[in-house]
Structures are given as C-alpha cells and as structure tokens.
Design brief:
alpha+beta, eight-stranded mixed beta sheet, 18 helices
C-alpha cells in the first residue's frame, strides 16, 4: 500500500517497534500467541478497511448529517456498511479475551489499530469506540448474567453501547443529575429523567443499543456519593437472548454540531410513558455492581475514554498535517527571495513548490511536532495500560498504574489543545483553498474542535491534574514522573541531545518548584485558578520528554524519516519547550488576575 494521507504507517512502525518495543509483550502469557507479524497484520487490516470503507464517506457524512424522521434516526447507508465490515473483521473485540471472540491484542496495538479509523472518519469510528468502552466496564463491574446478555452481542458488533452521564441542566456537574431509579419488587429499577449530549444514543445501525445510565436511587446519599449505574437497553432482552419489548427510552432530539457530524448526538428521555414495558411506567434498568458506586464504575470507563479522545485529537491533527504536507509539495506559488525580481533582460524564474518557503516549513514542522508528539504520548500511555495489567511483578504494575494516573489528564488534554492547532496550520498552509470545502482540512479542524470539550473539558482535566494527581499519595505521582523523565535525560547526557536534556531537566525542576509554591499558598482558590496554565506547562514538559525519547530511539540511523524525526525534536526543543518558562513565571507569582475579576466587569 502506498503512502497514505490518513496516517503514516512508517511512523506507527517506528513508535511501536523501534521505540516502545511492543514485540517484547509477546513473552507474557496473555500475548503469547502473538508476534510482530500478527501485530503488523492487524495494522495492515486496519489501514485497508479504514482506507476503503471509512475514508470514502467521511465528507458525505459531514454534508448529510443524521436526521430525526418520525422519531427515528436516518443517516447515509455507508456508515452502516463500513461498521459491518469493521465488525466482521473482528475489530470490535480486538483487545478482548479469546473467550469473547477477541484477539487479545495489547492495548497499545489496539490503540494503533483504532487510530486508522479515527483519522479516516472519526464520526463513524465513534460507534465501536463507545461500544468497546461500554463492554469493558461491564466486564469489570457487571454480573456474569450482564456480561453474557450484553457484552457478547456488543463484541460481535450486533449491538452498540453508550454512556449516558450528562443532563440538560447539569452538564459536567454530575452531582446535580436528577434522573431517578425506583427499585422494583423483581430486582429491576424503573428510570425516569433526561440525558443530553449522548453520542450514539439512538440509530438504526444495530439490533439493540445498550445504555449505561447514571441515576440516583431515592433515599441515597446526596451529591456524587448517591449516584448508581444501570444497564438500560433500548429493547429488553429475553432469557434466550432474543429481543423483547421496546424499553421506555425515547429519542427526543438530535444536536446539530459544528463537526463530528457522522455520530448521532442525542437528547434521550427515560420513562416518559411512550413505551410501557409490562404495562408500567419507567425505563427498565438493571443495577451494575453495588448501589451508589456508579461514578466510580463510570470513571473506570472514562479514563480509557479520555486516552482514546487524546488519540482521536492527535490523529485528526496528523491527517491534517499529512494533507498539508502533500499540498505544499505539489502546489507551486512564488519564488525564493533572491529570485523574485529577476535580472535585467531575463524573465522571472519558475514558481516553486510552496514547501520551499521557510514560513511554510515552519508551519509544517510545528504541525509535525504536535501531531507526532501527541501520537507518541497516547501510545506511551496505552503501553502503560499493558504494563499495569500484564507486567510480571506487582511492583512494576503499581508503578505503571501510578504513572498512568498522573499522565491521563495530559494524554487527554494536550492532544486536544494542539491537535486542532495542527489542523489550523494545515488550513493556513492551503491558504484560501484551505478555508473552502473543496479541501478536507477545514472538516478536520471542525471535527477536532470537539475534543477539548467531550469526556471532560480542558478545565476539568486541569483541575484533575493540579487538584488531585500531583498531590495524591504525598506527591508520589509527580515524583515518579520526574524520575522517569530523569532516566531519559541521563541517557542523553554526552550525546548530541545533551542540551535538550539539560533544558528538560531544568523544566522538570521548575515544575516541581511551582507545584510546591501553588500548594504552599494556603489558598486553594488561588491555586486552582491557575490550573489551566499548569496543565499547559506540564503537558509541554511531558511531550518534550517524549520528543527526546523519540530522538534517542533514532540512534545513528540515517534516512529521511529518521532525520525528519530528529528535526521535529529539535523544533520542539528550540521553539516549543521555551513556552513553559513564561507559564512557570505566571504560576510562581500566584497570579490573581482571573480570580480578582468580578463577573460584572466582563
């Protein structure tokens, strides 16, 4: 297969094999049936299906968004056909146990496989992504009956799944949800309430939809401590697995989005009496796990979802970069500065490809550093998931878990901030053409703009990082991150990257110092008012570290690919890492500008 504008297979091979050494995972019992050949075969299959079945309808799905007609969703048929091919290839179950028809792929390989679909058509790819997250939660926290009833059809691709958290009045403030779950004499619950912003919440793509719904059981504790989790299927399921009555879950409307249009985004009403299973009002729900533990269970899925959102943001930036690079190599315009006027008696020299202009190369280097840096970050975190679950020693598993906890808000937020910047630069490289619908880069930007919002906004990630992660266990996570980065910089000492390593060491030291300053202020309001700046600074330090890691992984190899990697690392070192110093200055000053701005001044 030739060079793709969706993703770079050469870069994926470098990240997985030359850097992360995923083949070493095959020594572990869970992955013993695998080899580099099986991993590469899965990536080949993903590229083929993404290229032939997902990418071709990406623009059509954007221009013909789902419609609500007579209470049902209508969408272009290509979405369903692509997902059928995806499911028949066994990719929904790729990472899951063989017991459930899975391939038992490592998470890092599974994420690389899924990257092809996010980059090719994120709107269509969202349906199986939501389904695998739903299935994984039920496998972890559900009963055996729930696993057999719901997970198996999901992993076969016959049913899809959702997570229904938000409500119109509550948004991200889950303590304020009002959906109620009334216990019934038969062990089931009847749910009433409304859920908003539910991706994949209704469609006709599959026989059934399995909703995971947060609700409160009357008499439970107030706030988030009183939230429970329920399975609420669109159609009830009989004992033999066949579909029974329609549950009282009704599509009330579709949200019309700036991008990401191929994924239905819904307002759902539960228990409004449109359907009354068994002649009783309320949507039938089944408690997952224990009462009042719903948010804990949901967050086990949310953490996976947040890393996957970071992946989507990185690869949407990546495909934008590849399209801009291709355009810049083929579009001729202007001449080198010294040739503009021509000499007396001579005509102007021929126009050159715009990649010959330094400012275009600046934009491409920036986009390359953001997209390839974001992809490295997310694959590193996916590799930590494999360490957390399959490392030989409990100590190694605990270390991976702590580092992953520390990096998750960064893995979600950094690509979500800088992936859209890569797409913005792709538009700029295209010039006026980039601002038209004749080229796909404007859609990549619109699609990517959702990622700083869903599965926890940038502000929520910043509060998680500064308010929880860096102070948990007495700062153990931050100390581990610093030590892990320090191991890389120690290896770089005495090499051509010694200067990068020294600058990175200085940035890590300042990160620790400003963390102590912020939490030593004795005023959580001042501390957390600066959380977004802290997230930006910490994210750039982490991605700077991973660029140093990539540069070191290139070794002495000389090829355009490896030289390009080294140059992107130099760009990040010279142009991007210095950005953190201003942010550290601001953080160290305990700035109150935002906090001291009354609402009536705005």
């Amino acid at each position: 297969m030739g060079s793709s504008l969706i993703l770079s297979r050469r870069d994926l091979d470098f990240l997985l094999h030359e850097w992360l050494d995923v083949e070493s995972l095959t020594k572990r019992p869970r992955f013993a049936e695998h080899s580099r050949e099986t991993f590469d075969a899965a990536l080949d299959l993903a590229e083929e299906i993404a290229t032939e079945h997902f990418a071709p309808h990406n623009r059509k799905a954007d221009e013909n968004e789902p419609r609500m007609v007579d209470g049902k969703v209508e969408m272009i048929p290509e979405v369903g056909r692509a997902l059928k091919v995806f499911a028949e290839a066994g990719l929904v179950a790729g990472e899951f146990d063989e017991e459930f028809g899975g391939m038992q792929l490592p998470h890092v390989v599974g994420q690389a496989v899924f990257a092809w679909f996010n980059a090719a058509n994120v709107g269509t790819a969202a349906y199986p992504f939501l389904t695998t997250a739903n299935a994984r939660l039920l496998l972890t926290h559900g009963s055996r009956e729930q696993i057999d009833t719901y997970v198996r059809p999901e992993l076969e691709g016959r049913w899809f799944g959702t997570m229904a958290l938000s409500e119109p009045q509550a948004g991200s403030s889950l303590a304020d949800i009002t959906t109620r779950a009334e216990p019934q004499g038969d062990g089931t619950y009847r749910l009433t309430g409304n859920k908003m912003w539910i991706s994949g919440g209704d469609h006709e793509l599959t026989e059934n939809i399995v909703h995971l719904v947060l609700a409160k059981i009357p008499g439970g504790p107030p706030g988030v401590k009183g939230i429970s989790l329920f399975v609420v299927p669109k159609f009830l399921v009989e004992h033999d697995g066949s579909l029974g009555e329609r549950n009282d879950v009704v599509l009330a409307g579709l949200n019309h989005k700036m991008g990401f249009r191929g994924t239905t985004n819904t307002l759902l009403n539960f228990g409004e009496g449109v359907h009354t299973p068994g002649g009783r009002a309320g949507a039938v729900g089944y408690l997952v796990g224990d009462r009042h533990r719903g948010l804990t269970y949901m967050f086990s899925m949310m953490n996976e979802a947040r890393i996957a959102v970071g992946m989507g943001a990185a690869v949407l930036g990546y495909t934008g970069y590849l399209h801009a690079l291709d355009y810049a190599r083929t579009r001729t315009q202007g001449r080198p500065a010294g040739a503009k006027s021509g000499r007396a008696g001579e005509g102007l020299s021929a126009p050159v490809p715009i990649i010959e202009h330094a400012d275009v190369r600046r934009m491409l280097l920036a986009a390359k550093s953001y997209s390839e840096g974001g992809l490295a970050l997310v694959l590193y975190c996916a590799r930590l998931v494999d360490e957390e679950q399959t490392a030989e020693s409990l100590e190694d598993r605990a270390r991976a878990h702590l580092l992953l906890e520390m990096l998750t808000p960064i893995a979600k937020a950094w690509p979500s901030q800088w992936g859209p910047v890569a797409d913005d630069l792709a538009i700029q490289v295209h010039g006026g053409y980039g601002y038209t619908r004749d080229y796909p880069v404007e859609q990549f930007y619109r699609d990517n703009r959702l990622n700083p919002i869903h599965e926890g906004t940038q502000g929520i990630q910043s509060l998680d990082l500064l308010g929880r992660k860096v102070v948990m266990q007495g700062g153990a996570g931050l100390a581990l991150l610093a030590a892990t980065i320090g191991a890389t910089t120690a290896r770089a000492a005495g090499t051509e990257w010694a200067g990068f390593a020294a600058d990175l060491d200085a940035a890590v030291a300042r990160l620790g110092a400003v963390t102590a300053t912020l939490w030593g202020a004795g005023d959580p309001d001042v501390t957390l008012a600066n959380s977004h700046v802290y997230l930006e600074a910490a994210g750039h330090v982490v991605v700077g570290w991973l660029w140093l890691e990539q540069a070191m992984a290139c070794g002495t190899s000389r090829s355009d690919f490896h030289d390009g990697k080294r140059q992107a690392a130099r760009y990040f070192w010279r142009w991007e890492l210095p950005r953190v110093q201003h942010r550290f200055d601001l953080l160290g000053a305990l700035d109150r500008t935002v906090l001291d701005t009354p609402p009536n001044w705005l």
